[in-house]
Specification:
The protein has 397 residues and is an alpha+beta fold. The chain is built from 11 helices and 17 strands. The strands form 7 sheets. It has a 4-stranded mixed β-sheet. Strands 3-11-10 form a 3-stranded mixed β-sheet. The chain has a two-stranded antiparallel sheet with strand order 1-2. α3 packs antiparallel against α4.
Amino acid sequence: MSDQVRSGDDAAAEKTGWDAGMAKRCYYEVLEVERTAGDTALKAAFRKLAMKWHPDRNPGDKSCEVRFKEINEAYEVLKDADKRAAYDRFGHAAFEHNAGGPGGGFGDVASAFADIFDDLFGMGGARRGRGGGRERGADLRYNMEISLEEAFSGKTAQLRIPTSVTCEACSGSGAKSGTKPKACPTCGGQGRVRHAQGFFTLERTCPGCQGRGQMIEEPCPSCVGSGRVTRERTLSVNIPQGVEDGTRIRLAGEGEAGLRGGPAGDLYIFLSLTTHEFFQRDGADLHCRVPISMVTAALGGEFEVPTIDKGKTKVKIPSGAQSGRRFRIASKGMPVLRSRQTGDMYVQVMVETPQNLTKKQQELLAEFEKLSSGATQPEAAGFFTKVKDFFGNRAGS
């Protein structure tokens, strides 16, 4: 059938929300959500509909079983990012060659409801038993302070971190040397037990092994069965050039050792920059404020300022410079992280008003004021002219 020609059955099916040719309703319509719905909205919709149409709540109603299976199948597809992308592009045709169907059939209900059970009954640990009782170690965080100069040039730092490492005596198994952990007799090594309740089959963490799937009859005396001991380690970490305040560096596998030989967690180093006495940072640019005398601002001049690369540079001030004026020094800022680019340095001059004047200095300044005209201070002269006109207009109104 071509795209331009459609049978009356196909058109009717489309109007009612059924996928033409597959006799299935649109999964989004089944869950009563928009196509733009996120994971949270999908989960909430599934939970609501599953509770409403569950066969245990509607005994003897075959239509409820069919609807419940339909809801389960739709959620199995849409909760998986890859399956959802395929469905959005090809519809039900994306799964027509999958013998079990996208939802895995009605018998996979317990799997589909695993995340719902986590919310309702706190059963998140029921699925940790696979893997012979091995558990991944915790991630660690280390806060490090560095100076702006160190962020500019980069550095190699040595860290001394107390953490859990794999026990050498038992090689992380937790069992005494010469012995091995045995499968838990309660769950047969699965780490979870099943309990049938009507139509549902619930899975719970095995009470005998606490979800590990194994029992240690003779614990290792060095680690008391945990498979790890606490030691202080020295690690070398490379701080690249251009890091900013809050930069996070990840050292994979350098966190806590896992329980009973499980994989180690990661170490995250969070960098913070100490306050610099001269520079303020804005991304890759550096800013500094330099006070200059009234005479230098009026007549012009030059001065030297330090740079972040431990050098120095001259800044020339033209005559008549105003307070707050900025001067740009190209490529004297911070390097951009993982780039060959470099920021700039900005020097802002602040004209300092003279203080603690002698009588002679006061007399000279008073004489200068008498000799001054609007040409020497045009901004001030223009402002007060406007003020005079303003009050004049108010008086004449």
